[in-house]
Amino acid sequence: MKERMKSLLLLLLVACSLVQSYYLIYRLPGSDSAAKATNTYIKTDNMGPQQRVENLAYPDKMLIHMGDGKHTVFYPNSTFYKLIYTRLKGRSFENFQRESVDNIDWNKVRSENPGIELTFGTGIPVSLLERVMQIQPDALFQAERINRIWIYNTPSDSKTHALFFSTQGDVMYEAAKVDLTVQDVQQHVDFGKSWIPYAMQDGGAYYVPEKPVDIVEATLEIGSYTVAQMQQSLFFDPGITRYIQEKDGSEIYTDSKRSLQVRQEQKWMSYTDPAAPPSGESSDSKDILAAVDFVNEHGGWNGEYRLDLSSTGAGQNQVMFQQYYGSFPVLDTLNFHYGKMKLDLQQGNVSAYERSLIYMKPGQSKQVRKLPAGNNLKAMLLAIGKDSPVEDLYPAYLPKLDAGKLKLTPVWAVKLANGQIRTIR
């Protein structure tokens, strides 16, 4: 009897052990039942790495003036561009003096004096530029936005001139104390002597290469972020979003406050949060930092980007990040939205966010193409300029989806005074 009781007790213990093992196995994280319980959760860590604003704020081009009417242009990520810009970021600029731009013949300065001219598109706030370069804080122009830095030598002066141009157009600031010698500037300028020569047009508005420019045409393997990933990234509770099918084929997901619109044929999304609460006083610099933080927290960066900023009204800014492939920007077109992230901010809060869902994957094919130059290019620019004056010329990529891959075709991008972008191949 005693042995029988022992056997029953042992059997009961084994049964309990099996039951406990079952619950342990199927309730531990990573088990099938746990996966079913949380199958709406999508990790977004791997959508793209985070980025610092200092890595996004850099010039769109570097003009090298060699004197005697000789010029060349270096573009982002090229060897000489990176070498010169890295050195300039390590030098200090102090004691700024406000001056008028009308007192100097700039065409003469460009043609006769060796120097380096950095352009920043629509401009960069001085308070942000101080995070990138060694600029001594100065109340005189702390609130300015700078779209051009010009560092040059003159034969009659033993010191280097460093000018910071305001986007206002009629004001510049000269650093009275510059940690650069005449020899430093000349050494940087000499890097341009073996590069493609460029001819200055319209008083330095843009530059035309005198020899054809070699640029790589690329066909890239791509992937696409899913709607579920973007929902998880942008909504507090993706489980309560409603789906709406629009007549144009676009998909809308909303939680009654925020909305996410996805255009699957273009792999493009736009997110709006009109109820974003105001955070008080704002500035260009704060809006840029808020925009970078937002992208870091809601999807990350799927490539190389450069900061661009435009004001849209009182208390409102549109912050854009231009995507690059190699040294050149990828154009955002009407037929295929790609190449730019756009964020609208109101008093430091993001109210709208647009980006492509496409990301590049390993695997690509490349071939070198030549962009036109010299008189041939000048003739095409003259024809285009009849509609509106040419403001800028730069190499770029025209994107196109081709058989499930992303094709980047090299073009000249021609920016007109009316805001249009035309292309030349």
TrEMBL record:
Recorded superkingdom: Bacteria
Protein name: Regulatory protein YycH domain-containing protein
Record domain Regulatory protein YycH: where: 3-421
Origin species: Paenibacillus albilobatus
Taxonomic path: Bacteria, Bacillati, Bacillota, Bacilli, Bacillales
